# Entry
Amino acid sequence: MTSRTSFALALLLLTAAGCSHAERPEPAATTPTGPPASEAYNADQLTQALLTDIPGYERSGAPQSGQYGSLAAVRNSLQMQQAAKLDKPQCASSTRAVSSEKSVWSAPSALVAFVKGRDQTASETLMAVGPDIAAQQVELRVPASCRSFRVAVGGRWATGSVVEGGGTRIGEGSRTVGVSTTSGTTSVRTWFVVLRSRGYLATVTLYGPGATRDEAERLAQQAYQQAERILP
# Structure
């Protein structure tokens, strides 16, 4: 399985892993317009509050900023997800991750990515959303029927499983989700942490064969401390 195929599979599984039983609106097909979801912080302020360094990692390009749905990394992820086929389509069509929430889709945002070696990445996204939306995203849970499934990209099938971590609280509330994908002898893990605080929602994603929950939550704690230190 190529790294691109593996990454596309993980991205699709992340979409399912971030879902709840509630129906979510589809993301707009064009760049979003209109007022941002929150006036608390603008994209420039959020960019300044991103992690600037992770020991052992190198930053991958410059940070991206703007409305969440317009970020290149977000749109590329959605294109990869659309190229995948899920054996339980209800997990993709009736439930969505945060990128499908209209109030998040239009929110001022900033994103930065890091790489370690050839096969591990870490990314952080900050979004300026109101407290109700932030709490809603943190409270999402994975439906039991979506915790195991099969997904294919380019005709190659992989099995996936999802677990939700509990007990670790970061900021004013957080959730941790882990996704494992296996195709043949190749296995990849993805852990992501969604947390909220005053005026913003943060997502930290760790992807690679060596990704662990402990490291993902440690990075999320660092991201939270950095944002709290920088944002007024």
Q: What stands out?
A: The radius of gyration is 16 Å.
